[in-house]
Amino acid sequence: MTDTHPALLRALELSEHILAVAEGNDLRSLAALDAERMQLLKSFRLEQRLVAASDRALLEEIALLNDRAVGMLEHRKRGKGREMDVAAVGRRAVAAYGSVRMRR
Predict the structure, then answer these.
(1) Domain boundaries along the sequence of the chain
(2) How far apart are CA 7 and CA 10, in angstroms?
(3) Which of 37, 63, 68, 104 could serve as a FRET partner for 5 with CA atoms 20 to 30 Å apart?
């Protein structure tokens, strides 16, 4: 892909990194990576009136990687929500039965 736009190549690298971060545990850098990628995509859009086939292929790959990363983050979010629900049920149970003493 030698005739592709350099901003798109860098955006693809960032997209791959974003997916790796979404699959891992270190989510702190995700917003900065996404912001950098967004700037690259915006600059490409401003510079290019016609999109070459190779650039279009890169944009599609970036979109697919983004979809996978978003899906991974949504999955993690739902999992955390379930964990919080289970913890809340446990806290309510402790509160409800914590004051009951066993009688001998």
Answers:
(1) 6-97
(2) 5
(3) 68
State phi, psi for 29 to the nearest 5 degrees: -85, -5
Listed ranges 2-6, 39-43, 78-82; the one with the highest mean pLDDT: 39-43
Question: If 0-12 CB within 10 Å is exposed, 13-18 middle and 19+ buried, where does residue 101 land?
Answer: exposed
Say how many CA atoms lie within 13 Å of 10 toward its Cβ: 15
Confidence label for 101 from pLDDT (cuts 50, 70 and 90): low
Whole-number Cα distances in Å, 18 to 8, 9, 29, 38, 82: 15, 14, 9, 12, 24
User: Please, are residues 4 and 58 in contact by the beta-carbon 8 Å criterion?
Assistant: yes
| Cβ atoms of residues 66 and 18 within 8 Å | yes
- Integer Cα distance of 66 and 61 in angstroms: 8
Question: pLDDT for 9-52, tens place per residue?
Answer: 999 999 999 999 998 877 888 999 999 999 999 999 998 888 88
